[in-house]
User: Which sequence fits this backbone?
């Protein structure tokens, strides 16, 4: 027993992607050779060569950060048996669960309800769990759905634990009739009974959603009668209170809609998370927090125990701030037509991050250490906590840091000293309302040094970066089966809007005082972790050289110049680079279990999202820093998988997000048409096969846009976008002609 108690609760397993390392190294070597050719070439004084040199220099720097991130991949292996030998079930630490939703139209309550039900059914003592649901839309429909779901949970939770159900989201579990096949007649009878109850629950929520007011606003719903989504007082409802005992199989369920006023900034999801942190600190004050988005249901019921293996490990307890679980999706469109399934990328880049100082915080599926959220640094032991925070409630400086609620400040003291509250005490709603008010954070450290950081729409990456800069590590908690499953955008509109929001927020981080470079120079962010953060925070900046490089072949055809070597002795460098890169990328996709078609869709969407979504993200940040406009926060639409035969086709609207791509496509058409009219392959300084091939390759990547030019309805590019793109394309041609004249 003594030996068992001294064994680590998890181990880090290092992967060796030898083939990828070789191919990545060859790619880097070829990039350096290409840059060397640009510098030594007698054509290096021409405009196309200069632009190509700048773009390829950027690609080389980006590739160095990519290689550094991928070089030492790892994943974790947890030992549940050792955990349960060391900590009995009754001694397991309490866990607070945060679920966030913001708009019942974009995030249907039936999806939120399934996520909550799966969390309530975790293989964890129910009297140690508390589920807090933040509703930033202040929707009576969401509250109604949760109230009804709580009634169903009294049947669902015991059923899951009795029969060890793996998938604990009922809408996924009951979609497979084969689940009812079981040797026990009792199971089959219960299965059909529970399914019928769930269908009734689903029907109630769907019927309520059809009405402008989902239910009579009386009794516990009366408070919603005088509320508006962006102008209302705090609403906190304890839907279910677990007071201990064997009969209490359903954990605490608390509904929260924080106060909002028109003239007060609410800081989007980061603000909601900070309110949840304070309210839960007053009510249950668990030392660990799990946060999930409203669409991420539990797919591995033992995930809390897996995460605790990392967080309670003797080494992890001192070094690990959070355990991040990967994101996977259950509603994949065939062949990943929109490139949003994130399968190959986490396998190589995600595990690469895990092999450094740690995986980034992805905003969902993450287990946090509460004291880290309160600003504690690594190796901050209990003696220091007692010394630094003795008499915390009377310390004016600390009150300014955490706010004026003495009850909350006392709860902070308990966390820093390693104490836990009585989980069965009455939940104090009155005190919780105070810390959820919109003016509570004024003149405090919330959003600056404490809690989720403000200042970026990618508050998750920013907050994780803060933890790493303090010297904390993080771990990738990869389990089999996968811990959480969620829904991905079901069309290109959602996917492109999502990438725009990500790239906007990430570039905002890079250009702020939280830049990872500063974290290495003045903090404890390790160098390679810094390079990895530079790679991810520069998605938006990457769009500028990619657009320039995509337009370069067309420019050369129109002006009869070249940017590629026109001699066979030198042409092998870019040709080999193109082939090696694509073979390497294809190999990674196939090794991840994906098809060649999926690989191509990911390649194509990589170009489309970078040159459209990320470019708009870049312009958004540019306008923000010029103080012309602020950064909007766009919620990604969550919806059930569609059986529509047109799934996979591109949908277009009048959004500016389609303007760059349509313009690029038209420019390529003009260039290719001119190449057919004036083909001059023997001119020494003119364009050649390479430029024509590159222009054709760009058209191939933009094939969905080409179909959109001739499509009808929502599958066609709007006439207004086509007209704007035509004007921009001819302006580009005019610029090219002016270059020739000069």
Assistant:
């Amino acid at each position: 027993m003594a030996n068992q108690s001294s064994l680590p609760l998890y181990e880090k397993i290092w992967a060796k992607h030898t083939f990828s390392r070789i191919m990545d190294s060859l790619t880097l070597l070829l990039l350096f050779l290409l840059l060397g050719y640009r510098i030594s070439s007698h054509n290096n004084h021409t405009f196309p060569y200069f632009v190509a040199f700048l773009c390829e220099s950027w690609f080389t720097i980006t590739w160095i950060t990519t290689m550094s991130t991928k070089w030492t991949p790892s994943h974790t292996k947890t030992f549940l048996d050792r955990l349960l030998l060391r900590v009995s079930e009754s001694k397991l630490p309490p866990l607070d669960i945060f679920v966030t939703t913001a708009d019942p139209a974009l995030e249907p309550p039936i999806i939120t309800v399934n996520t909550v039900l799966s969390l309530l059914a975790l293989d964890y003592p129910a009297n140690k769990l508390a589920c807090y649901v933040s509703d930033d839309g202040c929707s009576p429909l969401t509250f109604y759905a949760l109230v009804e779901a709580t009634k169903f949970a009294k049947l669902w939770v015991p059923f899951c634990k009795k029969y060890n159900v793996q998938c604990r989201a009922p809408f996924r579990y009951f979609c497979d009739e084969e689940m009812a096949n079981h040797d026990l007649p009792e199971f089959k009878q219960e299965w059909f009974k529970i399914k019928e109850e769930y269908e009734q629950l689903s029907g109630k929520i769907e019927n309520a959603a059809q009405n402008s007011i989902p239910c009579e606003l009386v009794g516990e719903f009366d408070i919603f009668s005088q509320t508006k989504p962006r102008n209302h007082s705090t609403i906190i409802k304890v839907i279910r209170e677990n007071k201990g005992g064997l009969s209490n199989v359903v954990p605490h369920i608390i509904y929260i809609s924080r106060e909002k006023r028109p003239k007060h900034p609410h800081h989007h999801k980061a603000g909601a998370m900070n309110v949840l942190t304070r309210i839960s600190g007053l009510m249950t004050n668990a030392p660990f927090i799990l946060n999930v988005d409203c669409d991420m249901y539990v797919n591995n019921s033992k995930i809390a125990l897996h995460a605790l293996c990392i967080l309670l490990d003797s080494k992890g307890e001192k070094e690990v701030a959070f355990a991040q679980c990967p994101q996977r999706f259950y509603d994949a469109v065939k062949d990943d037509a929109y490139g949003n399934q994130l399968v190959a990328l986490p396998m190589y880049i995600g595990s690469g991050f895990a092999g450094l100082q740690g995986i980034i915080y992805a905003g969902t599926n993450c287990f946090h250490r509460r004291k880290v959220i309160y600003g504690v640094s690594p190796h901050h032991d209990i003696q220091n906590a007692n010394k630094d925070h003795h008499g915390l409630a009377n310390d004016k400086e600390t009150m300014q840091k955490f706010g004026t609620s003495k009850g909350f400040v006392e709860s902070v003291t308990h966390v820093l000293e390693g104490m836990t509250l009585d989980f069965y005490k009455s939940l104090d709603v009155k005190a919780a309302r105070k810390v959820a008010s919109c003016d509570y954070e004024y003149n405090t450290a919330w959003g600056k040094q404490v809690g989720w950081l403000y200042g970026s729409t990618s508050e998750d990456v920013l907050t994780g970066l803060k933890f790493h800069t303090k010297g904390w590590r993080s771990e990738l908690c990869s389990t089999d089966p996968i811990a959480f499953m969620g829904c991905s955008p079901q069309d290109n509109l959602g996917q492109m809007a999502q990438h725009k929001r990500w790239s906007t927020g990430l570039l905002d981080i890079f250009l702020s005082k939280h830049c990872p470079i500063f974290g290495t120079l003045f903090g404890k962010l390790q160098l390679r972790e810094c390079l990895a953060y530079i790679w991810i925070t520069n998605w938006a900046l990457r769009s500028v050289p990619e657009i320039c490089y995509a337009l370069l072949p067309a420019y050369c055809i129109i002006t009869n110049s070249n940017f590629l070597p026109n001699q066979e002795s030198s042409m092998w460098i870019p040709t080999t680079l193109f082939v090696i890169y694509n073979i390497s990328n294809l190999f990674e996709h196939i090794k991840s279990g994906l098809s060649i078609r999926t690989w191509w869709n990911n390649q194509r969407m990589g170009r489309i999202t970078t040159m459209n979504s990320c470019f708009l993200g870049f312009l958004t940040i540019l306008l923000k820093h010029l103080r012309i406009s602020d950064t909007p926060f766009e919620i990604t639409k969550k919806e059930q998988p569609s059986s529509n035969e047109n799934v996979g086709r591109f949908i277009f609207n009048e959004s500016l997000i389609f303007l760059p791509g349509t313009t690029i496509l038209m420019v390529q058409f003009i260039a290719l048409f001119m190449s057919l009219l004036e083909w001059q392959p023997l001119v020494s300084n003119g364009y050649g096969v390479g430029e024509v091939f590159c222009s054709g390759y760009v058209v191939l990547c933009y094939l969905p846009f080409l179909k959109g030019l001739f499509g009808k309805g929502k599958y066609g590019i709007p006439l207004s976008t086509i007209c704007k793109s035509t004007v921009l394309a001819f302006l580009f041609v005019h610029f090219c002609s002016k270059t020739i004249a000069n």
Summary: Residues 389-393 have pLDDT under 50 and may be disordered. Residues 9 and 309 are 5 Å apart (CA to CA).
